[in-house]
Amino acid sequence: MVNLKKLAATVTLGTLLISGTTPGFAASLTDKQKKVQQQQQQNSSEQSKANASIQSREQAISKEQQEINKLDAELQDVINDVAQKKAEIRATQEKIAKLEEQIKKYEAKMKAQEELMKERMATMQKNGGTSINWAEFIFGSKDFGDLITRMITAGTIQENDKQIFEEYQATKEKLAAAQADLKSERDALVTQKEQLEERKVALDKKMKERAAKVKKLNAEKIKFESKLMSLKEMESTLQAQEASIKAEIEAQRRAAEEAKRKAAAEAEAAAAAAKKKQASNATASSSNAAATTPAASAPASGGMFQRPSGGRLTQGWGPASGVNGYTFHNGIDLAAPVGTPIRAAQTGTVTTAGWGGAYGNHVIITHVINGQVWTTVYAHLSSVSVSAGQRVSQGQHIGGMGSTGNSTGSHLHFEIHRGGYSYSSSSAGNTVNPASFF
User: Fold this and answer.
1) Which of 49, 71, 196, 431 could form a disulfide with 330 if both were Cys (CB 3.0 to 4.6 A apart)?
2) Sheet holding 383-384, edge to edge
């Protein structure tokens, strides 16, 4: 038989043990859970603060970069303007040098003509010029030129000497015109130099402003690459373009002469062949000869400019956000794999070919079409297969597509300028929409 008292005592002890242990254990778990939750909340709060700080910093950096991009757009226009002013000054200085040389020739010619006329007047006075009041002419004239003018006006010069005196008068007028032009060009040069100095001051001010902003970013240990084409590069491009325009015009002149010579030779050969044939075959012979003569006016392709590469259009010509350092996109972007062939959009002379700042590997070609200068630009190439000064034909391979310079992927940046190359990051400048040609 079970001892009921002993069993009751055992149950009571077990109950006491259980009731004594459970409250303490539960309290311990609750405290730990609270601590974990508090730690999680603290971590979450700190993480939120860190995220907010990072986001704030990124926004500040983005804002600084956008401001620098805006400055870059403004700076590029000033750099271009300074380079253009320098080009204008060089052109004016060349005009002045030519005018000064011209004036020296006129003065030397007048001196020789004066000596000749002095001899003729001495002869006139000796051989019957007594009817002329020489004292009145000589002492009433301001200088020798005025003396000749008075004599021509008075009709006192004999017919056989008239041509000599009129030639002198013409030289005198040309000299006066050249001296007036020289004064005008010198005045223009003074104005141009003043304008250049003003633009240089503006450029210096903006460069300092930009340097301060870049320094601020560098203090944050942020790398920022310049998107500017330097003034030196711009001047070099302008000078190279002047040379390539002359070269292209000369190449076209030689090509026209060669075509004319060839056409004349073919016509002569056709005429000689026609004489040897019977009269019944003369017409057919003439038609065959005409059929073999190439049409000089036939265009190289369906349009003035052909599409320079394959690929899809990723950005068109027109206004831009300014995020990439420009507020106007001066060309079109065609995206395709690295190495995709790039071809000349039209026949012309290569102005520059190689590496250059934001464009990376690039080619600039100058074209002269019906007397109008055009310029095409091919940027971000992976390779360049032509050189400066080289003449290329429409459709000729000039390089491979790539992602050099300021580029985020393989593509061709293609521009067409009506006139010489003149970059503007904030307006169309002299660019036209390439898409309108093909």
Assistant:
1) 431
2) 341-343, 397-400, 383-384
Q: What pTM was estimated for this model as a whole?
A: 0.57
Residue type, 294: P
Tokens for 173, please give them.
């007028």
Dihedral sign computed on CA atoms, order 141, 144, 145, 148: positive
**Is the dihedral angle over the CA atoms 142, 147, 152, 155 positive or is it negative?**
positive
Is-contact 430 422, C-beta < 8 A? Answer: yes
Cα–Cα distance for residue pair 254/251, rounded to 1 Å: 5
Residue bearing tokens 């429409």? 394
Q: From the CB of residue 239, how many other CB atoms can be counted at a distance below 10 Å?
A: 15
**What letter represents residue 387's amino acid?**
S
Question: Number of helices and strands (H, E) in the chain?
Answer: 6, 13
What length does the chain have?
438
* Residue owning tokens 């005008």: 184
| Whether 62 contacts 322, CB under 8 Å | no
Whole-number Å distance between alpha carbons of 144 and 147: 5
**DSSP-based three-state secondary structure for 171:** helix
For residue 108, the one-letter residue type is A
pLDDT, tens digit, for every residue of 316-334? 999 988 767 678 899 999 9
Parallel, antiparallel, or unpaired for β 372-381 and 328-329?
A: unpaired
Which residues make Cβ contacts (< 8 Å) with residue 1, sequence separation at least 6?
none
* Helix, strand and coil in the chain, % to nearest 5: 60, 15, 25
Give the span between the Cα atoms of 71 and 216, in whole angstroms. 15
State how far the Cα of 263 lies from the Cα of 287, in Å rounded to an integer. Answer: 15
Sorted by sequence, the CB contacts under 8 Å of residue 351 that are 6+ apart come out as 237, 240, 241, 244, 364, 365, 366, 375, 388, 421
Cα–Cα dist 201/258, whole Å: 51
* Per-residue pLDDT tens over the stretch 20-48: 445 555 556 677 666 666 666 665 565 55
Contact between residue 417 and residue 346 where contact means Cβ atoms under 8 Å apart:
no
DSSP 402: B
